[in-house]
Design goal:
Elements lengths: L10 E4 L10 H15 L5 E2 L6 E3 L3 E6 L2 E6 L2 H13 L5 E4 L1
Antiparallel strand pairs: 1-6, 2-3, 3-4, 4-5
Length: about 100
Amino acid sequence: MDVQQGHARNYVLRFKKSIYSLKQSSLNWFNLLSQALQKKGSYFSPSMVDPCMFIWDECILLVYVDDVLIVGKSKEAIESFISSLKTGTEAFEFTEQ
């Protein structure tokens, strides 16, 4: 799939606390993200096959260590999900890189 120039957005979640040097930092990050997704009510549910995959009607999230791949039916669904994480109580910070 080719992405047209100027239409690509890359997001990176960044912790406000520096915990990257801890052994359990990956698990802490996953738990924080998992709890945030499950707080969204009936939106996301973990896959029965792979606990690192969260499924919603509009989007699928794949989590690997501290990276998240978001696949959605539409750009609007993905943008809506990203904005809900930014403004939610978990206050994830996204940076474009």
